[in-house]
Amino acid sequence: MASSVVCQYPTKAQLQVQNFDDENVVTPEANNGKKECNVAPKDTSPTLPGWYADVSWPGEAHIYKMEKIIFQGKSEFQELLVFESSRHGKVAILDGYIQLTENDEFAYQEMLTHLALCSVPNPKKVLLVGGGDGGILREISRHSSVEHIDICEIDKMVIDVYKKFFPDIAVGYEDPRVHVHIRDGIAFINSVPEGTYDVIILDAFQPMGPIAEVLADNCFLDSVAKALRPGGVLSAPADSLWHKNFVVAETIAKCKNIFKGSVNYAWTTVPTYASGVIGFMLCSTEGPPVNFKHPINPLNTEQNGVAKGPPKFYNSEIHSAAFCLPSFVDKDVDPKRC
To answer: By its UniProt entry, which InterPro entries does this protein fall under (predicted)?
Structure first.
């Protein structure tokens, strides 16, 4: 999953071999020739040996006690680190950005998925750009109306590592409706016919906000809007409402100019991320109206697809509450309170 969190990535010189577990080695053969790394940290920080420093915002840091490195490898696209933490389970770091922890990944994955899919009737065709960990695929699988799921992930290494070390998350790949495309997401979206998808979920870009390249690229968002059917929905991560440079109203206005339908900002708590909060932009194209605040396609918790149980975080009440904004944000967005 994408995040605006910036991390202090441990160098090879900062790692010493110990606690070697040959059952958890990704060999060069299994990893398509990528270099294996299965070592425990000894000095990942000059002042906090054995801890991983996540420098999220200026003047702040979130640190994790590292029990051992499970995987460290680099593909032609990016570098991936997986380590076992003492309290958050396994943690994945991609190019210095925290992607997820086993402790709370479900909050982000469930909300990014169901805020969109539960807001439209009978979604049938869904595109996921990024999301190589498989967690969003797991959540999409709960929707029985969906007939076809495309995932576009640029890096096969990411998929392989998650399948090996995060099987309860990567279980989403077991859904027979899933079709995997190993290629650039922007090029893929530009290649599909207009009106192809009911829902598109972006999970491969910086969150929409003051530093979001995806929001600045109107051509890309235009392509996303064209790939959606009338009344189709985009779901994408957005900056935390605590980010002092993030103006929710401005982001909503920019998205309305492109998508022409309903646009709303939602948020939830994910302890792993900076400030403990992550936002979401929900945008619909011009066509049948979409009311994101009042879901019309509720989940059937007795039909969980390939997931190993019902959602842990999302429910209809949480869905509606996610669009209720604090006073310091709400006054700039909508004078009508939830």
So the answer is: PABS, PABS_CS, SAM-dependent_MTases_sf, Spermi_synthase, Spermidine_synt_N, Spermidine_synt_N_sf
Q: Are residues 91 and 126 in the same domain?
A: no
The vertex-171 CA angle with 169 and 173, nearest 5°, equals 115
Q: Furthest-apart CA pair in the chain: how many Å?
A: 59
162 Ramachandran zone, left/alpha/beta (phi>0; psi -120 to 50) = alpha
198 as an active site residue: the answer is: no
Using alpha carbons only, give the angle 231, 236, 238 rounded to the nearest 5 degrees.
130
Write down the pTM of the prediction. Answer: 0.84
What is the arithmetic mean of pLDDT over 102-118?
Answer: 97
Whether the per-residue pLDDT at 213 is higher than 70: the answer is: no
Which residues contact residue 105 at a Cβ distance below 8 angstroms, ignoring those fewer than 6 apart? Answer: 1, 133, 135, 169, 272
| Domain boundary residue, one of 101, 131, 166 | 101
Q: Which of 203, 222, 330, 332 is catalytic?
A: 203
- CA geometry: angle at 208 spanning 206 and 209, to 5°? 105
Residues 144-169 as b/e (b if ≥16 CB within 10 A, e otherwise) read eebeebbbbbbbbbbbbbbbbbbeeb
Nearest to 270 by CA among 237, 310, 309: 237
Q: For the chain, what percent of residues have pLDDT higher than 70?
A: 80
> Which tokens sit at 66?
């590292």
The single residue listed with the structure tokens 């999953």 is: 1
